[in-house]
């Protein structure tokens, strides 16, 4: 049991400690001797445990217990009290002793009790080491989390900068949008832009998943959409099916290790007469809300972007005055309205109730009411167009 860190034996200077010191030495313990009156018996020195031997004045030993327990320390130092009767036992334990042994006492009993306390101390010290390591790990994790949080905030600002800050305002048509990412950054994205004095391009897309990987795809697609070709003083508006075909080819040519699935609808609107041309790549079908008559799901073929070479079809519709078109992402699958099943059925029921509202109010109302009863589990975008002529 020999160790370079001693046991501290605190006793009356006038008392006889030779027998205890000899017994402890024979058991392999190094022993340091201090007086009961010493105001700082440990005094910053490493000590395995303290044995307090009561002398002629019990108050001195009890006062030492009180001082030892009051001192601030990160390490557990057991206190073994040797002394008086039952009353003294209660007092010593109340004042900080961990064990009280009544004298007279056989040396073998003292050694056994010391060994037991040291086993407890060793276990306590091991737990302290583990707790300290856990605390260091926690601080490293907090630092890493803070770094990730800063990077996510930067990603959010970058992604937000790629979304239109305002929607075009033209006399013939109105646009409205509600975008709610599930996390700080999301995989949904959209845009509306003027192509010339008569035409506007727009799209709504959804990258697989959500979070940072999906948000990076949104930035790639934003840069990859080429709606207009300029040659000298002339230009050509690229048809929607061709826009999707070129974007799809570009994504495939990147040969990314993980295939990035993206759904998208790209549209071209002639604001003079409301002619709408659009193509679809695996995206939920657009919903046409005529001024009068039933809501129509504009179904058409179109594969996901980034999977394989394919052609896309193009569909043409003409929006009359008061007609509205809604595009949305698959976050709508969790939508719930009144007693209707979640998803498209709830969306259609809510649209039917509020279809007379202007497009801005309709989009606001739908995005609010459809997620009152269910939790949003994915990114969600609702994009609307209304013809005013």
Keywords:
alpha+beta, 2 domains, Rossmann fold, single chain, Phosphatase 2c, domain 1, 5-stranded parallel β-sheet, rod-shaped, 389 residues
Description:
This protein is of the alpha+beta class and 389 residues long. The protein folds into 2 domains: 124 residues, Response regulator (Rossmann fold), CATH 3.40.50; 225 residues, Phosphatase 2c, domain 1 (4-Layer Sandwich), CATH 3.60.40. The protein is built from 8 helices and 17 strands. Helix 4 runs parallel beside helix 5 and helix 7 packs across helix 8.
In short:
With 389 residues, the protein is α+β, with helices and mostly antiparallel strands. The chain has helices at residues 18-26, 58-70, 86-94, 107-162, 212-224, 240-253, 344-354, 359-369; strands spanning 7-11, 31-35, 49-53, 79-83, 99-102, 173-180, 188-194, 199-207, 228-231, 234-237, 262-270, 275-281, 287-289, 296-297, 315-318, 324-328, 380-387.
């Amino acid at each position: 049991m020999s160790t370079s860190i001693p046991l501290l034996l605190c006793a009356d200077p006038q008392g006889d400690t030779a027998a205890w010191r000899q017994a402890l030495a024979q058991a392999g313990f190094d022993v340091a001797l201090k007086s009961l009156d010493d105001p700082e018996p440990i005094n910053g020195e490493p000590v395995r445990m303290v044995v307090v031997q009561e002398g002629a004045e019990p108050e001195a030993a009890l006062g030492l217990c009180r001082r030892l327990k009051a001192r601030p320390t990160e390490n557990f130092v057991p206190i073994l009290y040797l002394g008086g009767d039952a009353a003294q036992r209660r007092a010593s334990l109340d004042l900080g002793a961990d064990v009280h042994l009544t004298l007279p006492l056989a040396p073998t009993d003292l050694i056994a009790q010391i060994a037991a306390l040291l086993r407890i101390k060793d276990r306590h010290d091991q737990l302290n080491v583990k707790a300290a390591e856990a605390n260091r790990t926690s601080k490293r994790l907090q630092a890493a989390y803070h770094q990730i949080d800063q990077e996510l905030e930067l990603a959010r600002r970058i992604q937000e900068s790629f979304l239109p800050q305002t929607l075009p305002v033209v006399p013939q048509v109105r646009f409205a949008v509600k975008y709610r990412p599930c996390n700080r950054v999301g995989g949904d994205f959209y845009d509306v832009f003027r192509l010339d004095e008569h035409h506007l391009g727009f799209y709504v897309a959804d990258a697989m998943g959500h979070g940072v990987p999906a948000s990076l795809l949104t930035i790639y697609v934003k840069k990859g959409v080429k709606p207009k070709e300029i040659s000298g003083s002339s230009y050509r508006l690229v048809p929607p099916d061709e826009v999707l075909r070129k974007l799809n080819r570009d994504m495939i040519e990147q040969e990314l290790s993980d295939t990035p699935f993206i759904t998208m609808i790209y549209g071209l609107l002639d604001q003079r007469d409301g002619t709408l041309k659009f193509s679809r790549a695996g995206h939920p079908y657009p919903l046409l809300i005529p001024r009068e008559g039933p809501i129509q799901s504009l179904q058409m073929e179109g594969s996901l972007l980034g999977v394989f070479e394919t052609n896309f079809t193009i569909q043409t519709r003409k929006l009359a005055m008061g007609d509205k078109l809604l595009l949305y992402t698959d976050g709508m699958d969790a939508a719930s309205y009144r007693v209707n099943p979640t998803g498209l059925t709830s969306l259609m029921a809510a649209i039917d109730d509020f279809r007379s509202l202007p497009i801005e109010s309709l989009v606001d109302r739908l995005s609010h009411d459809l997620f009152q009863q269910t939790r949003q589990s994915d990114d969600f975008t609702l994009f609307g167009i209304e013809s005013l002529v």
